[in-house]
Amino acid sequence: MNEIKINTEFIKLDAFLKWCGAASTGAEAKIYVQEGDVLVNGEVCIQRGKKLKINDVVTFDNEDYKII
After folding, report:
1. Please, what's the b/e burial string for 43-60 (b: 16 or more CB within 10 A of its CB; e: otherwise)?
2. CATH code, domain carrying 34
3. What is the total count of domains within the chain?
4. Among 15, 51, 52, 59, which residue has the least CB neighbours within 10 Å?
5. Please, which residues have CB within 8 angstroms of residue 24's CB and are 6 or more apart in sequence?
């Protein structure tokens, strides 16, 4: 599991995908989310503006990213 540190109280899902390197652009992140390719805490999430907090786990492309 990859641990990704954020410096704020929360981060939006699309911004997080860019931050952790899973997506190279915001537009790319938006497409992944809209197509249902991203899981948040084990459930498909199609809200690109979903607020992620410490200890949330994002799964994309068979990789897990835990927010610390």
Report:
1. eebeebebebeeebebbb
2. 3.10.290.10
3. 1
4. 51
5. 18
Residue (of 68, 20, 29, 25) closest to 50 by Cα position: 29
Quote the tokens at residue 4: 């990704």
pLDDT tens per residue across span 30-41: 999 999 999 999
Q: Within 13 Å of residue 27, how many CA atoms lie on the same side as its CB? A: 0
Q: What's the length of the chain?
A: 68
Look up the domain containing 26 and give its range: 2-67
Asked if 65 contacts 56 with a C-beta cutoff of 8 angstroms, the reply is no
